[in-house]
Design a protein that fits this description.
Elements lengths: L11 E3 L1 H10 L4 E7 L6 H12 L3 E5 L15 E5 L7 H6 L7 E6 L4 H13 L4 E5 L8 H6 L9 E4 L2 H10 L2 E6 L5 E2 L9 E7 L7 H5 L3 E4 L11 H20 L1
Parallel strand pairs: 2-3, 5-6, 5-10, 6-7, 8-10, 8-11, 9-11
Antiparallel strand pairs: 1-4, 2-4
Helix pairs in contact: 1-2, 4-8
Length: 255
């Protein structure tokens, strides 16, 4: 029996959109691409082949049987072997952050790589400036995250820190307001004014929520009202609601 590949491996990404975004935005990460022979009539695959040729990236057209060890993932007939994702340094980010008000997301103990990828994707789509994750006790960027983000990790800085507590202190020193999401928050998420300020939104782990220490450092604790007797939203859905409330307010304020 062939051993299935472990998708927690950091050294490959898969799927047409994820590979296309990687080759379009950060092709230096890509070492080699393998493409199933039965997909070469696909328009997106041919775009990837053209980009690989123009950027001098090695690619191989292989029999579909080559993908047998990756049968546990929806690879869509294409896998790129890559170097690990490049993280942005927090101090460098703060030193060179854009003019105007800045928004970042802090992830505190997110365990599911699908949730990590989805939150990165939402943050990028909403124009947030960075996603901050701890180097331990949190899902890290892997093949599943890259696939779930649909290439969004190439469109937003990812900051990995050893201590979220120290990172929050540094953000506060740089005039960021800290907003934690919690089911028992003092404010409904839509009652907070997100405009005209730098802020960092902390989303906690699926089971544990935001840590007590990081909660204490927060200026606001917001909740999403539950209208039925049910626990809470999935963390990536909750993040999406709060993130896009800030977008809604910005758009309304700019009119």
């Amino acid at each position: 029996m062939q051993k299935k590949n472990n998708t927690s491996n950091l050294n490959f990404i898969y799927g047409r959109n994820a590979v296309f975004e990687a080759i379009s935005k950060d092709f230096d990460r890509i070492n080699k691409i393998i493409i199933s022979r039965n997909t070469t009539s696909d328009a997106k695959i041919n775009e990837i082949i053209d980009l690989a040729k123009s950027n001098g990236i090695i690619f191989q057209i292989v029999p579909k049987e080559r993908f047998a060890t990756y049968s546990d993932i929806n690879h869509q007939g294409i896998i790129a072997f890559v170097s690990p994702v490049k993280y942005t340094d927090l101090y460098e980010f703060l030193e060179h952050k854009k003019q105007g008000f800045s928004k970042v997301v802090i992830l505190d103990g997110i365990e599911d790589p699908h949730n990590l990828g989805a939150i990165i994707r939402t943050s990028a789509c909403a124009g947030f400036d960075a996603v901050i994750i701890p180097s331990r006790r949190n899902a890290q960027v892997n093949a599943t995250v890259e696939k779930t983000s649909a290439g969004a990790i190439n469109h937003i800085p990812l900051i990995q820190v050893n201590s979220l507590s120290n990172a929050i202190d540094k953000l506060k020193d740089n005039d960021y307001w800290i907003i934690a999401a919690d089911a028992h928050g003092d404010h409904n998420y839509f009652d907070v004014d997100y405009t005209n300020m730098n802020f960092a939104l902390i989303m906690g782990g699926e089971e544990t929520g935001v840590s007590k220490n990081n909660m204490k450092k927060s200026d606001f604790v917001v909740k999403i009202p539950m209208l039925r007797n049910f626990n809470s939203l999935n963390v990536s859905n909750a993040a999406c609601a709060i993130i896009y409330e800030s977008v809604r307010q910005d758009l309304k304020h700019s009119v």
